[in-house]
Structure formats: structure tokens, C-alpha cells
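Memo to structure team: turn this sequence into C-alpha cells by end of day. - J.P.
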Amino acid sequence: METAHVKPWTYIGVFVILGIVTFVEVLVSQMGLPPAALLIALLAMMTAKALLVAMFYMHLKYDTRTYSLSLVLPLFMAILLAIVVIIASRPAV
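Reply from structure team:
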């Protein structure tokens, strides 16, 4: 299946958005939020960046849903595993 070529400005726009989200991640990490709030905020931004990279630079946006799901489902499981490990490794109070 052949799709139309993506304009270079699309890649530049995604690059700028990734840079902005990374900058916001650094700001959020320096804000002194409680660990749970920090974890949720950083995981959300990390997921958004990973999806942007997969959609545009890996061209999944222009592929079939099967390829997209083959990436999104393991990504969801990895995030879930990270959350479980972090919760399980907390010291008992």
C-alpha cells in the first residue's frame, strides 16, 4: 500500500513539539511535586512523546491499524509493569 509523502514541515513540527514536551518534562521534574504526581505527569508526557515518534518517524500513522496496535499494546503493558514495579518497591510504612 502506498501513501502520499509527508511534507518536511510535518517532521519539523513534530520535532518542535517533542522539544517543547521535553522542556516541560525537565520543568516538572524540578517543581518538587509529590512522587506519585511526578510519576503520573512524567509517564503521561513520555507516552505522548513515544506515540508521536511512532506515529510520524516510524510512519505508523500512515500504516494499517494492525501495525499500530502491535506497538500500542506492548507500550501500554510496559507502562503498567513500570507502575506495578514502582508501587511494589516502595518501602513498607
